[in-house]
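Task 17 of the worksheet. Students: predict the tertiary structure of the chain below and write it out as structure tokens. Keep your answer in the requested format; marks are given for formatting as well as content.
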Amino acid sequence: MSGHRYPWKHGAPRTVFITGASSGIGRDMARRLAAEGASIALFNRSAAEDVLAELRAAARSADQGFACYRADVADARAIEAAVAQAVRDMGVPDLAIHSAGVLHNGPLLQSSAQDFERVIDINLKGSRHFAAAVLPHMRAGSQIAFIASLAALTGNFGYTAYCASKYGVRGFAEALRYELKLQGIAVSLCCPGEIMTPMVAQEKQHMHPVSAAMKAFAGSSTLDVSVPALLRGIARREFEITDTPKAALTAFLSRHLPGLARAVGDRIARSAQQKLQKGQP
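Model answer:
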């Protein structure tokens, strides 16, 4: 994996802080940024020795440093303490990426209040807690990026908790952008469609058929396709970033032709529900 493949507006970041890098998007971003020459601090709920080994293997020079700090982003004090320790160990970040997140799929009346609260605590409150922990250390010219989802831009059957959390992240990032613009700090909101990560693969085993049919409209991607697309947008300091043409089309329809987007969604959901009732695959 060669370095300097991204159009960094202010040069490749030297120090990057990333949450949720034990797998999926966060892990792949960490590996690619290590190949760009960055030192990286990971923030996970569990140890990540295997990820650290990957980063060391991808590193461009012996001067790069890698460390993992155990903290739950849903715990404001814990993530604040972990970030402060990382700053003492590694210096201030040029780029901070909040990638930690959880999924929950299921109709509202088949889901518990605890299911809803867990998604909100990690996806939405975690975004606030990480931003509040890292921003006091960041300087003009730096950047913070939130890994949201296409679910921040459009709804889907069975994703009341997830869409609520990601729409919340979108609103949070939109408002925060105005605050940080005055400080010279860029904000990016990544809104990829479905990416085949371990978390998504596990979710698919129990996904509601109507949800699956609606998600199929926006297509599915891989880390090798989507993560470089997201990093290119981050490098260009774009605010709202999608990863594939289908995801971009879905976002466009939801924003500019919402009535049509809902009509298409209703048709897909109705067809999938009819097949389910008839016992068809």
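Marker's comment: Residues 113-134 form the longest helix (22 residues). The CA atoms of residues 173 and 189 lie 7 Å apart.
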